């Protein structure tokens, strides 16, 4: 569980109520057991007209799925990319309307950042989007509860490549695979900046995951 969430959980006194999903088995209805050798590749901050199609091309080359946590205004600007992701069988989740910290929002703010984004993504994908990844992983028990009341599962991750810092392709690959284990959820980005290093790392990550006997699956589908 993320450090920010652990601190917030302690301050609010215990582990009652809904919890964020850090692994595939944590997701309601995943059908995945804690020992199943499956992994999810997830991408934040898109859809980006320059980089998302190239990510999709790599995934299609290897015939593997991924999951995309999309920013609302980006999805509104590139509905064709949302439809392409959905048609491939990839997962789709919300990443808010414009990448804002949800922990400080009023109900009116939640209506824009959460409800508006969900409605748009649901319309474009053809299914009721049920997952959200709060920007930068900023969560607390109160927020997770408020999102759950909206029918949304909060999805975090188990491996953070920090590719947004542009640390080099080798570092992205190493971070993605460092703690590879059943049900891992790997965080990368297809938007929000120059993602050439992520694109270069992606084939190596996919090949290494397969060599280690894991299968890549979508979540939030």
Overview of the structural elements:
With 221 residues, the chain is an alpha/beta fold. Strands 1, 2, 3, 6, 7 and 8 form a 6-stranded parallel β-sheet that branches. Strands 4-5 form a two-stranded parallel sheet. The longest helix is centred in the middle third of the chain and has 19 residues. Helix content is 40%, strand content 14%. Helix 2 packs parallel to helix 8 and helix 7 packs parallel to helix 8. The protein has a single domain, classed as Glycoside hydrolase/deacetylase (TIM Barrel).
How far apart lie the N and C ends? 23 Å
What's the total helix number? 8
Reading off the top of the CATH hierarchy, the class is best stated as Alpha Beta
**Rg from alpha-carbon coordinates:** 16 Å
Runs in which pLDDT lies below 50 for 5 or more consecutive residues are: 1-13
Class computed from helices, strands and strand pairing = alpha/beta
Could you state the order of secondary-structure elements as H and E?
A: HEHEHHEHEHEEHEHE
Shape: globular
Average pLDDT confidence is: 94
Measured as a percent range, the helix fraction is 40-55%
The name CATH uses for the topology is TIM Barrel
Number of domains: 1
How many strands?
Answer: 8
How much of the residues is beta strand, in percent?
A: 5-15%
